[in-house]
Structure formats: structure tokens, C-alpha cells
Design a protein that fits this description.
The longest helix is centred in the last third of the chain and has 20 residues. Helix content is 39%, strand content 42%. A hairpin with a 2-residue loop joins strand 5 and strand 6. By secondary structure, it is α+β, with helices and mostly antiparallel strands. The protein has one domain: Nuclear Transport Factor 2, Chain: A (Roll), CATH 3.10.450.50.
């Protein structure tokens, strides 16, 4: 794996999430790339755009920090942490304006300088609990 390919995971999180560069998705994903997440698969940039749009519609101020990258053969394992602010309602709940923190691990298969397959696990439940906790607190404060 080249140095450029070794850094592809860090580049993905920086450009796609921290900078919000939607166009970087098609640049870094191979057209037939398969991304596996939570029992669902998406294929290529077109398959990933709805996920990207939903999260960017729900959150702002993304700050993803890559904490570790381990590379072997054609795969890179990236351990990361994220903080962002819940400022939109695209997750089906009103914005709480709370900053949430969660972590994840992504395993990426890379070929010819592009992501061709990925497996992702991140703490979605922890993120939702932080949002719902803020929503419950706001509801309680307005009812009291």
C-alpha cells in the first residue's frame, strides 16, 4: 500500500465529514465500492449520498479525529472520535443544539488509490441517547 493509500482513511474523515465536501465522496470511493454499516449496504457514491445528506442535515460543526490507523495488506483500520452539534431534524427529532460525542472504527479495503469496500461500527445508540437526553431535558423544562 502506498503512503497516499495509507492516508486515505484520514483524508476521508477530514474532507467528507470535517469539511463537508460532498464531492470528495465520489473522488475517494470506487464506483462499485460497497459500504457495510448496521446490517445495510450501500454501493458507490450514489448509495452513500443519502447517509451523508441525512447526517449533515442533522448535525453541524463536525470534528472527526483519527486516533489510530493500522494498515495490513490492502486494508486499513481507522479508530476515530467525533463531536458535532445537533442542529437539524433529518433524524426525525427536533434539533436540540447539543454537542454530542461518539466513537467508531472503520475498516477500509483500498485498491488503486480508492476505497473499494468498508465496514463501519460506531456508537449510534450513544449518540441518540445524548440527543434524546437533551430533548427530554428541554421538554421537562418547558412543562415544569
Amino acid at each position: 500500500m502506498t503512503d497516499l493509500e495509507r492516508g486515505l482513511g484520514t483524508r476521508w474523515f477530514d474532507e467528507v465529514w470535517n469539511q463537508g465536501r460532498r464531492e470528495s465522496i465520489a473522488e475517494m470511493l470506487a464506483p462499485a465500492a460497497v459500504l457495510h454499516e448496521g446490517g445495510a449496504d450501500c454501493v458507490g457514491a450514489e448509495g452513500f449520498y443519502p447517509f451523508f445528506d441525512r447526517l449533515h442535515g442533522a448535525f453541524s460543526n463536525f470534528r472527526v479525529t483519527v486516533q489510530d490507523t493500522i494498515v495490513e495488506g490492502d486494508r486499513a483500520c481507522v479508530r476515530w472520535a467525533c463531536s458535532c452539534t445537533h442542529t437539524g431534524d433529518t433524524l426525525g427529532m427536533p434539533a436540540t443544539h447539543k454537542t454530542v460525542h461518539f466513537t467508531g472504527i472503520s475498516i477500509l479495503r483500498i485498491a488503486d488509490g480508492r476505497l473499494v469496500e468498508g465496514w463501519q461500527n460506531w456508537d449510534m445508540l450513544g449518540m441518540l441517547e445524548q440527543i434524546q437526553g437533551a430533548a427530554k431535558s428541554a421538554t421537562y423544562a418547558t412543562v415544569s
